[in-house]
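[09:14] KT: can someone run the structure on this one? pasting the chain below
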Amino acid sequence: MGGAASLAIAGLCAGGAIAAPDPPRTKLVPLSMFAGELGAWSPDSGQFAVPGTKKISLIGVDGKVRRNLRGPGIGYFGFPCECSVAWTADGSRIQFVSQEEELGETSVIGSVAADGSGEEDRELGVPIGSAGWAPSGWPLVYVPNARTWDAVTGKALGPNPDLWRLEGLQAKPEKILASPGTEWDPRFSPDGARIAFQLERRGSTSLWVVNADGSDPRRLTGPLLGSSEDSWSPDGRQIALTTFSRQKGDRRCHLYVLSANGGRPRKIVDEEVRTIGPAWTPDGRWITFANYHGQIRKVRPDGTGLQTVAEFPGKEVSGLSWSPDGRHLTYSARTPPHTD
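[09:31] RB: done, structure tokens below
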């Protein structure tokens, strides 16, 4: 993971929507390059929770660490580690998923109060390859044994990595979707009614959506090239997608938008973008993304109004995440590793 990384919390404007393209004033906090992807905003937009080695750090909008919470089970912090966190709807507790120590060991799920008290945890008995929390904190959907599946040959090296659901910390896990492939990267819609996920089958990946109980799975896209990231719009009607072009002569990664009910993805910017999760502003008026020039950019869902939010020349930007009130944005920035 060479290079220095930092998380910035950027105050963009006094209101909920961005009114001008002026670069934001930022506060930088050095963190690992995956902090933005793995962290989560509190419902009141006052704190950003970041999982670390045996702790969860709560960072205020001023960029300062307010509190370090002990996170039982967070003993391995690196990629690909599912060390994601989420808040309960009332902001009183933080839920987390972590894999202990080394690849292949059991994953741990847990919950701790925002003041550091009342911690609880549970071993699932299997490694979790990918997980997603509901908007209210529970349920949790996850994919066990995903790292034991060979997506190229289509052969399982262990138990099949299907999609499972857990209603609470002590609840019995329930398999909600089984398929001859690997489900990956499940994400609840904002209303918690549906789950978007990627499905790898014999080396081919596509984007799917399924009801939260596992019923009515539908494929939204044809095969996706390379690594792809997706993000629900705040109203749950659209999905933003960063993926590689299939057009002849263009194999760059672009930003697309498609209906959550299906249909052809629409490319909304011509420039090459980084394959990181696109981030919608909470009002749904803009989509933010990063490119290979160290820029954070924003564009309307119809492709108009493209402009630069901030620039970090020579850096790789990732980890974009908006606070619920639309006033702050997180990102990670690192110096790219040198290659000989």
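[09:33] KT: thanks! Residues 1-30, 75-82 have pLDDT under 50 and may be disordered.
[09:34] RB: yep, looked fine to me
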